[in-house]
TrEMBL record:
Entry GO CC: plasma membrane
Function statement: Part of the ABC transporter FtsEX involved in asymmetric cellular division facilitating the initiation of sporulation.
GO-annotated biological processes: cell division
Descriptive protein name: Cell division protein FtsX
Ranges in coiled-coil conformation: none
Main localization (coarse): membrane
Length: 295
């Protein structure tokens, strides 16, 4: 395509957006609502995957110590835990420390369980050399003396992965439906604008204009519609995620799980929303032009 022709197509697409006024606003609004929902879904799904990955790679076993265990017995238990194959490090966490973690996560209401009212247990946090070792280490730890229970992240991971898989499937289906609705709305909106220019298209055909020469301004108009419709969702998703990240990061501070940092993935979602907007806009325009270009 020559530069002069491309410039003309771009100029015509801008003029068409301005000329159609409220019709263009309606098409942009349809894209905005659709991409906002898609952006929110993507942010949630990506963070669910991140937390699931953290749980899968949780290489810690929490060994709960029996009440009444003396210091000497705890030292003996620590020695026996350290000898288990696959154990990298054993760290002691007292009942008070466990309660402080709970208070940090769930709030000051739990401060009433201070002192003798504390229902929690002393714990040995056992770091393993790999996620695969957590199951065998937990099973071995349960057989040791002075151990009340042994828990590991993999137990909750299996349930979480089923939930994540279900959310991913439904999220994918909903995203496709939203994109289909956007293409449908855009194509119908642009089809209405094309109807008002049907005579113009017929005249261009009569003077020998090719289908591609006629089609390109409308495709570019749809692409601009999609891009304009993506701007507001990009801003809203970014602002909302920065706020949610600040709130939830403090709540997850005492755990081994973390949300995706905004700088690592928001630009990817922004770029994806812009591309999706441009593609569905151009696609909607292209589909609406087919009947008018038939010989």
């Amino acid at each position: 395509m020559k530069a002069v022709t491309l410039k003309r197509h771009l100029t015509e697409s801008f003029k068409s957006l301005k000329r159609n006024g409220w019709m263009s606003v309606a098409a942009v609004s349809a894209v905005t609502v659709t991409l906002l929902l898609v952006g929110v879904l993507l942010s949630i799904l990506m963070n669910i995957n991140k937390v699931a990955h953290d749980i899968e790679n949780d290489v810690q076993v929490r060994v709960v110590i029996d009440r009444g265990t003396t210091k000497e017995q705890k030292a003996q238990l620590k020695s026996e835990l350290s000898k288990i194959s696959g154990v990298k490090k054993v760290t002691y966490s007292s009942r008070q420390n466990e309660l402080d973690n709970v208070i940090g996560v769930y709030g000051k209401d739990f401060q009433l369980f201070q002192g003798d009212q504390n229902p929690l247990y002393d714990v040995y946090v056992v770091d393993t050399t790999s996620p695969e070792k957590t199951v065998s280490v937990a099973k071995k730890a349960k057989t040791l003396k002075y151990v009340y229970d042994a828990k590991y992240g993999g137990a909750s991971a299996k349930k979480l992965f089923k939930i994540v898989a279900s959310i991913q499937r439904w999220g994918f289906v909903i995203s496709l439906l939203l994109l289909f609705v956007a293409v449908f709305l855009i194509s119908n909106t642009i089809r209405i604008t094309i109807l008002s220019r049907e005579n113009e298209i017929a005249i261009m055909r009569l003077v020998g204009a090719t289908n591609s020469y006629i089609r390109w301004p409308f495709i570019l108009e749809g692409a601009w519609t999609g891009l304009l419709g993506a701007i507001l969702p990009i801003l809203l998703v970014d602002i909302a995620y920065y706020w949610a990240y600040g709130v939830l990061t403090s709540a997850l501070a005492s755990t081994n799980y973390h949300l995706l940092t905004p700088a690592t993935f928001l630009w990817q979602i922004d770029l994806l929303l812009a591309v999706i907007g441009i593609v569905i806009g151009a696609l909607g325009s292209g589909l609406s032009m087919r009947r008018f270009l038939k010989i």
